[in-house]
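Consider the tokenized backbone below.
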């Protein structure tokens, strides 16, 4: 363990080599350079030395790096090739597919490898993995910690990677043998994020240190006992001992004060409030450094019911897509052969699972694409991990045959028609049940918020088009087997108005402490009753 007190002696030794001037030109305190060289820690203005490992003790930093690296690792990385017609085909037999989606090396899964390398790049600015070759094919990927590896550019402009071995010896890798995932940086390497963020992270570490000391050695008492008379030390000690014995386990236990003794409780100070605010500020600062929406780290600074979906889309497009493209570009260059590159093979992440909506939205989109003859029934089933069915590879529309003509109704199709009507009613119930679940979750959240009435209007503004979209798909299918003139948008408006009428009085008149239980009691039967009510509006038949 390197001690700060030893640095001056070590610096004087290095000064004899003539390096003191170099250190002084980069660091105000030359000892800071030596401290960083020996420990990997950088000094912040709060006099806190921040290292990559120490930064991970800050909960938002650890959480943010874990969220991004975990999301990058869980998305499949496919390999595609394109033919002369510009159609593409997955190449799952390629050895790199195994390394990035199943087993990266004999002791590490692909998820662990990709999560580890991405976390290195998020914190250090660079993530490295040695490529183990078997002939001309990649056989394994071995991660290397960025604190013992760095790139260097030779005089002929070639780039090599230097790996410091445990014994101090250096091993050189050619650029083709290292998978280098880097963040924003210079021509050779990414910027070390924890170094650039040392002031924000140092402030967070200082706040943690202050809180730990405050609640341990320096904590203030919760109550002060006052007396107008002077007490001897034995009497003071006896009084405090008796008070502590009576109230340690049960602070609310009644107390009897005699002899003009007075108990004065101590509330939180402005300093305590500022400490709590600084903790919140630190969380938002970390979100900025990692390009994360603050709500991902538990902050409600700019979160509303309307913005959740937009924030999630922004997270995928502005944060994750950067890392996906970095992985794809590096894998294209390092893991594909020259022949495969010329044949336009490439890596691509399957981000569909990240950007798809809820089940009702997904199924609605799938039905619309199938009816528009953009995808077949089997292609739609694959989106829900369902097996193919016979005849499902033909482009079709629920309202027409494959040649665009209206399907003929057979005279003996009465039973089948009734079964279709019943099935479509069940489809409507299923779609609405999921939307009602979303609605109930939103209402429970509003009941715990500060402005429930305004929030209710915003929530239903967002929910109304979702209901209309889901019902539109159901109604198009329903009209092929039964007469129906219901309008999906009007149904959605009527549904939302009836819901708001049912809870508006509760939101306005209930006491804040009673509102959650009152809302919960009102909406508890909704997941079963409300979908059936919508079916009755459409069919005119009570189930």
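A designed sequence for it:
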């Amino acid at each position: 363990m390197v001690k700060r007190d030893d640095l001056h002696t070590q610096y004087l030794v290095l000064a004899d080599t003539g390096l003191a001037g170099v250190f002084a030109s980069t660091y105000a305190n030359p000892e800071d350079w030596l401290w960083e060289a020996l420990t990997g820690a950088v000094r912040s203005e709060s006099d806190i030395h921040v290292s990559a490992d120490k930064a991970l003790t800050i909960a938002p930093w650890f959480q943010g790096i874990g969220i991004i690296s975990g999301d990058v690792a869980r998305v499949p990385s496919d390999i595609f090739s394109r033919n002369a017609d510009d159609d593409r085909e997955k190449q799952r037999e390629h050895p790199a597919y195994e390394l990035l989606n199943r087993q990266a090396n004999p002791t590490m899964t692909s998820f662990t490898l990709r999560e580890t390398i991405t976390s290195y790049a998020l914190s250090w600015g660079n993530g490295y993995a040695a490529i183990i070759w078997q002939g001309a094919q990649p056989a394994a990927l071995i991660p290397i910690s960025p604190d013992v590896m760095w790139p260097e550019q030779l005089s002929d402009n070639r780039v090599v990677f230097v790996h410091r071995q445990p014994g101090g010896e250096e091993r050189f890798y050619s650029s083709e043998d290292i998978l280098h995932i880097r963040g924003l940086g210079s021509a050779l390497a990414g910027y070390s994020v924890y170094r650039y963020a040392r002031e924000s992270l140092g402030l967070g570490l200082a706040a943690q240190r202050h809180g730990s000391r405050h609640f341990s050695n320096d904590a203030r008492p919760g109550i002060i006992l006052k007396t107008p008379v002077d007490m001897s030390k034995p009497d003071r000690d006896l009084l405090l001992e008796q008070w502590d014995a009576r109230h340690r386990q049960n602070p609310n236990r009644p107390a009897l004060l005699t002899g003009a003794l007075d108990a004065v409780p101590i509330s939180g100070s402005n300093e305590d409030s500022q400490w709590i605010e600084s903790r919140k500020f630190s969380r938002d600062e970390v979100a900025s450094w990692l390009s994360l929406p603050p709500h991902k780290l538990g902050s409600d600074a700019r979160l509303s019911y309307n913005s959740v979906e937009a924030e999630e889309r922004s997270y995928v497009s502005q944060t994750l897509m950067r890392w996906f493209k970095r992985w794809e570009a590096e894998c294209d260059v390092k893991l594909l052969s020259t022949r495969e590159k010329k044949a336009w093979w490439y890596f691509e992440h399957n981000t569909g699972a990240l950007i798809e909506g809820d089940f009702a939205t997904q199924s609605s989109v799938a039905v619309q694409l199938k009816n528009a003859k953009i995808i077949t029934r089997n292609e739609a089933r694959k989106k829900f991990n369902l097996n193919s069915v016979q005849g499902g590879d033909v482009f079709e529309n629920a309202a027409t045959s494959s040649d665009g003509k209206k399907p003929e109704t057979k005279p003996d199709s009465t039973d089948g028609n009734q079964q279709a009507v019943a099935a479509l009613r069940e489809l409507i119930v299923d779609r609405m049940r999921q939307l009602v679940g979303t609605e109930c979750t939103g209402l429970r959240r509003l009941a715990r918020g500060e402005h429930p009435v305004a929030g209710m209007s915003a929530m239903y503004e967002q929910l109304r088009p979702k209901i209309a979209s889901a019902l539109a798909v159901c109604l198009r299918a329903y009209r092929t087997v039964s007469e129906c003139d219901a309008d999906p948008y009007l149904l959605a408006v009527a549904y939302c108005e009836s819901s708001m009428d049912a809870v508006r009085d509760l939101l306005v008149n209930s006491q804040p402490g009673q509102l959650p239980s009152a809302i919960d009691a009102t909406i508890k039967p909704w997941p079963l009753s409300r979908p059936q009510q919508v079916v009755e509006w459409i069919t005119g038949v009570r189930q």
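The longest strand covers residues 126-134.
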